[in-house]
Design goal:
elongated, 4 domains, Jelly Rolls, single chain, six-stranded mixed beta sheet, 443 residues
């Protein structure tokens, strides 16, 4: 046997016993070095007794030695010049199926559409993504092919952080009689066998009328402390294509952001929020959330990370001014979101408000309501307020202004024409400052 390429080796082993026609035997070569990363070209020479032809005396094959990743998290897609998920293994059938969308389309945007899709599948980001081409022929029915990466050396678990694999896949509800699927898979024997990490994920999702993207995740905590390979197995049912992009592997990953402070101060009618970080790892942005009661929060704004590519080991300072705070108490918190979708919350900061014009809401009833809903106000002085009802999509469905008397005022809103569902009632003064926010269920 001779090995060329990333590693070199040469040796001769003689098999003194004959091999019957149709039989087999195992010959072991020792001392073969396959540690250098790259492709190894293996040639095996044989001498067949009584065979005058030399054409069938040589067997050639290749073995690839992959890299071993030891630093996490790993975040990769199809855009990188060096793909991490770059290897294929056919488990059933004869076709490989996997490829980049650029192999299927000449579109500058990377969009691809086969005949049964209602619209093109556009990249989640950038211009490239992986395609599992289950559409290309009935002969592919039942084919199983793994797109996989090199080795991941997972550190031992310490019980405090996550071990998982996340990826984005395409979804649509067209041609739903042929249910293609994909599985995250793991190998502990250098890619010889693959085990599915349940659950599997189907292509069809009734909420997508045109092709879209959804994120999937599987737990790999069981493999902490081991060196493994991870992949995505496509199972063809002769349906539409499946797209895969932005694959992330986390292993004992530290929290993406270390906060050293988060505080707020009142400046007249404004509230100023300030926070600082000492480390940021793959940080995408902060979502500043506000609440009336300290329990039910809604997003006020988003602030992008100041760190270059989301990574920093230096002190970074952030500030945001809430020009229209709630007149009563304001509760604030930060939702930090990293590039692979993981998020965490900061502590809650309370800035107590002064009731402008002495206006407050003491009751909203009935709730749920069918025809009318009453809002009970208490005001120290006569004043005007705006009452807005917003649906779950953020569309204003009702907006009125009313005058409050000194003392208690009951305002009745006719909601009989609204569709059944969930809404938000927002009360503001004439300057736009929020007095009260209340959820409403319309029956």
């Amino acid at each position: 046997m001779a090995v060329t390429g990333a590693n070199t080796f040469s040796s001769t082993v003689s098999n003194i016993s004959s091999i019957a026609s149709g039989g087999s035997t195992t010959i072991t070569f020792t001392g073969v070095n396959l540690n250098n990363v790259g492709t190894n070209n293996i040639t095996v020479y044989s001498s067949l007794s009584g065979d005058a032809s030399a054409l069938n005396d040589t067997l050639k094959t290749t073995i690839t030695t992959t890299t071993t990743t030891t630093s996490f998290p790993v975040i990769t897609g199809a855009e990188t010049s060096t793909l991490i998920f770059e290897y294929l293994k056919v488990l059933n059938g004869t076709r490989t199926h996997w490829g980049l969308n650029s192999s299927f389309t000449t579109s500058a945007t990377g969009a691809y559409k086969n005949a049964d899709l209602t619209d093109s599948l556009y990249p989640k980001a950038g211009t490239k993504y992986f395609i599992f081409d289950s559409y290309s022929g009935a002969s592919s029915l039942g084919n199983r092919v793994v797109l996989f990466a090199g080795c991941f050396a997972l550190p031992p678990a310490d019980g405090s952080n996550v071990y998982d694999m996340k990826f984005w896949m395409s979804q649509d509800n067209s041609y739903s009689t042929d249910l293609d699927s994909i599985y995250a898979v793991v190998s502990v024997d250098k890619g010889v066998t693959w085990t599915r990490l349940l659950p599997g994920f189907g292509r069809v999702n009734a909420s997508f009328t045109t092709p879209g993207w959804t994120q999937r995740a599987v737990d790999i905590t069981t493999y902490a402390g081991q060196t493994i390979q991870l992949g995505i197995e496509g199972v063809s049912a002769y349906g539409n294509i499946i797209g895969v992009d932005d694959i992330a592997v986390r292993s004992n990953s530290p929290l993406p952001v270390t906060f050293v402070s988060f505080s707020g101060l009142k400046d007249g009618v404004k509230n100023i929020l300030q926070w600082s970080t000492t480390t940021e790892l793959n940080n995408a942005f902060f979502s500043l959330e506000r609440s009336l009661d300290g329990t039910n929060f809604s997003e006020l704004t988003t602030i992008n990370s100041k760190a270059v590519n989301g990574n920093s080991n230096a002190l970074l300072n952030y500030e945001f001014t809430d020009f229209k705070p709630i007149i009563s108490n304001n509760y604030y918190r930060l939702k930090q979101v990293d590039k692979d979708g993981k998020f965490s919350y900061s502590q809650i900061v309370l800035l107590k408000g002064s009731k402008l014009n002495g206006v407050s809401v003491s009751a909203v009833y009935p709730n749920p309501a069918k025809n009318n809903v009453s809002i009970v106000f208490n005001a120290e002085l006569a004043t005007k307020v705006n009452i807005t009802i917003v649906d779950i999509a953020g569309k204003i469905v009702q907006q009125k202004q009313t005058t409050l008397n000194s003392g208690q005022t009951s305002y009745i809103s006719d909601i009989s024409t609204l569709r059944a569902g969930n809404y938000v009632i927002k009360v503001t003064d004439l300057s736009g400052a929020t007095i009260n926010i209340q959820k409403l269920n319309k029956q």
